Amino acid sequence: MMRKVLYSLIPIYIFAFYMYGVRLLFLSIFVYGFGILTEYIMEKSKKRKVSEAVLVTCTLFVLSLPPATPWWIASIGIVFGVLFAKEVYGGFGRNIFNPAIAGRLFIYITFPNIMTQAWRQPGNFGRMMSDTMTSATPLQTLANGESIGLFNAFFGLHPGSMGEGPIFLIIIAAIYLIFTKTASWKIMLSTFLSAGILTGFFSIIGIQQTMHPLEFLMSGSLIFVTVFMATDPVTAPKNETSKWFYGIIIGVTAVLVRSFSLFPEGTSFGVLMGNTFAALLDTAFAKKKVKA
């Protein structure tokens, strides 16, 4: 299952490399190095091997970073995610929070000034060797009453986290994960629909008058997180009915944080909120055994 997720991420990683060049490789060295090392140290004491899941965590984490993120902040984030969101619970299969999301959210809260301005203008390999910088993300552009264009949003031709841009590749990955029964389509659909309905409602009543609802949904990391992190089989609920409510929690929380908080991106908060209620949802919707 973890390998299938990695396979689905390869095209997105290649696209991110084309758009952001060696910066992606540079951060990957530290993220994979510290992520694997952290799990190795913790698992060695238990006489267990490093799992393939840590490769998925590292890949998702590095793709969720702004391209100009300092290497030491990226290192702190992945260590925190692997150590405190996974290993302290006993390792793979026992954690209740998604490690990549936990690590990402930790550095966003700890270093907000850096993590909300570490953007670069996407381009080809050569351009990203320069120091071309921009502080305007798609969500900030929309909040200012400007448009990024549906074409640019769909094909990732705008500043943002390195893996969140290519919506067309993320959709292809989602189809592959659903077809191979690696990820739950119920979680994807309920997350996106709930976020879409609430976004449309806010637009109608005037809370998001300056934002085009579809551009708003296609901007930021909503679709990327919905496909790859919300569907994490370890931290998501197991009951089929629970998955619908789990997705609703994530979608609604993400839009509320996006719309009313100081953080322009609320998907990480949405996933952690969903992770918190996953076990409770499974308990609530568990089928009661009928006594003979």
| Unreliable residue stretches | none
Biggest pleated-sheet summary:
none
Gyration radius over CA: 19 Å
Number of helices: 14
Number of strands: 0
Helix-strand makeup class: mainly alpha
- Which percent range fits the helix content? 55-70%
Mean pLDDT: 88
Describe this entry's structure for a reader.
This protein has 292 residues and is mainly alpha-helical. It has one domain (2-284). 62% of the residues lie in helices and 0% in strands. The protein has 14 helices and no strands. It has helices at 2-20, 22-44, 53-63, 71-84, 99-110, 112-115, 138-143, 150-155, 167-179, 185-205, 213-218, 222-228, 240-260, 267-284. The longest helix has 23 residues, at 22-44.
Quick structural gist:
By secondary structure, this protein is an all-alpha fold. The chain has helices at residues 2-20, 22-44, 53-63, 71-84, 99-110, 112-115, 138-143, 150-155, 167-179, 185-205, 213-218, 222-228, 240-260, 267-284.
Give the helices and strands, then pairings.
Elements: H1 2-20, H2 22-44, H3 53-63, H4 71-84, H5 99-110, H6 112-115, H7 138-143, H8 150-155, H9 167-179, H10 185-205, H11 213-218, H12 222-228, H13 240-260, H14 267-284
Key descriptive features of the protein:
292 residues; mainly alpha; 14 helices
